[in-house]
Amino acid sequence: MKSLRSALFVLFLAGCASSGTQVSEQAATQFTEGVSRESDIVAKLGQPTSVSIINGKRMLGYAGTQVKVKGATFIPIVGGFIGGADSKFTVATYQIGSDGVLEKIMYTSAGSGSRMGTTPADMPTQEPTAVK
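RE: above sequence
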């Protein structure tokens, strides 16, 4: 019984993976352009996953990916035909002026579903939204 629980726990853990820093749209847009400072962003979201300098302006990037494998993937024999995964990717970018003040917020979120075998994937759709 103990080994069965251990095996199920390992399968549960194998079903998810994430990397980077995922930021929701609500969290990404909580800052005010022309008012918030770079230190405010880092204090709330942590260290960025990337920092670039373009035309003298710092660009803080927070990118994250999350993948969840569908449970059906782990069913012996048929899992290869009915399984799959869902993924979500987010990028929040903040343009910081030379004075350390936030100038512009840019946010992107995308998701997709995949299936193995011959079953077509459910493709979630999302209307684009403008951010400030």
